[in-house]
């Protein structure tokens, strides 16, 4: 089922590239799933890690996920899909949407929090490496979100805290980042 989820995500993301570099988008869900594999996990968690962005970034729906991968995976992907997006809440500015998303995500399941922590780790590394301008907005948002994700896997929580603090340090000291694989 995990291989099927990876291939589904690969097809759904198609030729999409990461915003902060020119690598194929699918590399991000692969890294997120890899991080989730380093801690206690289920097959459904790995599938959801591969699929965590398909509803936000492609025409795929939660119903499509449920039909292909079952209720457990669909529930995780639904928990991981941002609710407070500009298209649904155009009257809210980014700060308000992110604040509401932090509150919402503080109440997601432990499994979803674990996957989201892996997502925060990978995105934070990527953004610090490739877009310091956007990082000035993004990293403080991730500091608030990481706090809300307490209850997910503790090891990934600590890694996420480290990456966010490292990002704040880089921003506050205008230092270049030497590489993606900082542990």
UniProtKB/TrEMBL annotation:
Q: Start and end of every HD/PDEase domain?
A: 21-133
MF-aspect GO terms:
guanosine-3',5'-bis(diphosphate) 3'-diphosphatase activity
InterPro entries, A to Z: HD/PDEase_dom, MESH1
Q: Which SMART domains match?
A: HDc
Instruction: Give the superkingdom in one word.
Output: Bacteria
Cited Gene3D superfamilies: Hypothetical protein af1432
Q: What is this protein called?
A: HD domain-containing protein
Q: Which species? A: Salinimicrobium catena
Q: What is the lineage of its organism?
A: Bacteria, Pseudomonadati, Bacteroidota, Flavobacteriia, Flavobacteriales
């Amino acid at each position: 089922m995990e291989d099927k989820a990876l291939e589904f995500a690969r097809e759904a993301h198609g030729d999409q590239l990461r915003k902060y570099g020119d690598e194929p988008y699918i590399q991000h869900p692969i890294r997120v799933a890899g991080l989730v594999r380093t801690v206690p996990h289920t097959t459904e968690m790995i599938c959801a890690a591969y699929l965590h962005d398909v509803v936000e970034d492609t025409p795929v729906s939660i119903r499509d996920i449920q039909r292909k991968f079952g209720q457990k995976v669909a529930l995780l992907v639904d928990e991981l899909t941002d609710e407070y997006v500009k298209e649904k809440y155009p009257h809210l500015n980014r700060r308000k949407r992110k604040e509401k998303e932090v509150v919402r995500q503080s109440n997601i399941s432990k499994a979803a929090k674990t996957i989201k922590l892996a997502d925060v780790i990978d995105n934070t590394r990527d953004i610090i490496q490739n877009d310091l301008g956007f990082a000035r907005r993004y990293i403080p948002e991730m500091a608030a979100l990481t706090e809300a994700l307490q209850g997910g896997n503790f090891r990934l929580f600590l890694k996420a805290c480290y990456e966010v603090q490292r990002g704040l340090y880089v921003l506050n000291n205008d230092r270049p980042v030497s590489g993606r694989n900082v542990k």
